[in-house]
Amino acid sequence: MAPGVPRASPFLDAGGCPTRGSSLSGRVTRGGKTTPLWKGFGYAGSQSGNGCYRNPKKSTVDLCFTCFFRCAILWGTMHSSQRTTVIVNPSSANGRTGKRWTEIERGLRSVLGDFTTLITKRPGRAVDLTSRAIHDGCELIVSVGGDGTHCEVVNGFFNGNLPINPGATMAIFPHGTGSDLARGMNVRTREQALRMLAARRVGKIDLGRVTLTLPHGGTQVRYFLNIADFGIGGAVAERVNGQTKRLGPFLTFLSAVLRTLVTFRNPTVALQIDGEMLNVRTINVIIANGQYYGGGIHVAREAKMDDGTFEVYVLGDIRLLTALRYLHTFYSGTYVRYPHLVRRFKATRIVAQSDERVLLNLDGEQPGQLPAAIELLPGALQFVLPE
């Protein structure tokens, strides 16, 4: 091949123009008008047999380069919708997402342009849909739903311990019961979410990776964006996901907390926090990458999703009456001022085990139990952030 001449392409002829059988030789519809794709991409001059205009004053190499790059631009335009996929959980927000999807979709298209929509129809389906979209070359995945949906979507970015495509980016459009991840990002309204997606400011955030024990034995690797905890937090997540959420975030989670407190027995847990050994009876252990969980509980006021560390809170052997007395301090985040209630750590790896059944909560989902190892992955995910 002569120097400076592009390699042969199944979409281009020997002169670098679209072949009739290729996707680039078809037609495109814009504004209701259908036009051949080659129109406007050549120079004034004679038309070649395959429908590409050639300028007799241009050399073959010039024409080849010109057509090659123009066709590359067109190819990107044609496939822009394939590069953005929106994963929708219609059951989120107690079914309101499905009922309002037409309105939500209109808003998303106003800021994203064309995209592919994939609908989840069962728990765990968002993981598979995300994984398939990334394998197919999707570059931006937008999760529409609550924290559980976002958690499933981020798990679809990985195959075991490895990312499928480190260059893929995740974004969220919060529409769930709690939406605590968005709350911690100070994205509280639909308008704020749309502005965030329109600005498309991408940064890298930390993730949590958990190797957990499944209910019937065996282990599994799971990822979380926001907060993991075990103890009463896992029991509350199990209760919340088994009941209706029509009361809204605050009352749904508060009622679950109160009902669980009545019967919950604090387990004894052996902990390693960055190598420091603890053996404690605890009502809950919280590992925070974000700030809020449980429908607005501000458990980690100092947590940042890009600082390379977890905020870890080991609560004491708190009983029912003490828990009720200080419950408001957990919503405000001021419970950390009471050393008899909690010990605070900054860490990147936590290992926990217990002889009792201790359930895990990952971003509102209840996927397994102890023993578990939780580690921080710094800057592991490209994420669309608010301005």
* Helix count, DSSP H or I runs of 4 or more residues: 11
Distance from N terminus to C terminus (CA atoms, Å) equals 49 Å
Q: What's the oligomerization state?
A: single chain
Overall geometry comes to globular
Low-confidence stretches: 1-63, 67-81
Classification by helices and strands: alpha+beta
Number of strands: 21
Mean pLDDT: 83
Instruction: Provide the helix percentage.
Output: 25-40%
Rg, nearest Å: 26 Å
Strand content: 25-35%
Largest sheet: 10 strands, mixed
Task: Give the arrangement of secondary structure elements.
Blueprint: E1 27-30, E2 33-36, E3 46-47, E4 53-54, H1 60-78, H2 80-83, E5 84-88, H3 96-99, H4 101-112, E6 116-119, H5 125-135, E7 140-145, H6 147-155, E8 158-159, E9 162-163, E10 169-174, H7 180-184, H8 190-199, E11 201-213, E12 219-224, E13 227-231, H9 232-241, H10 249-263, E14 268-273, E15 276-281, E16 284-288, E17 310-315, H11 320-332, E18 342-347, E19 349-353, E20 360-362, E21 369-385
Parallel strand pairs: 5-6, 5-7, 7-10, 10-21
Antiparallel strand pairs: 1-2, 3-4, 8-9, 11-12, 11-21, 13-16, 13-20, 14-15, 14-19, 16-17, 17-18, 19-21
Helix pairs in contact: 4-8, 5-6, 9-10
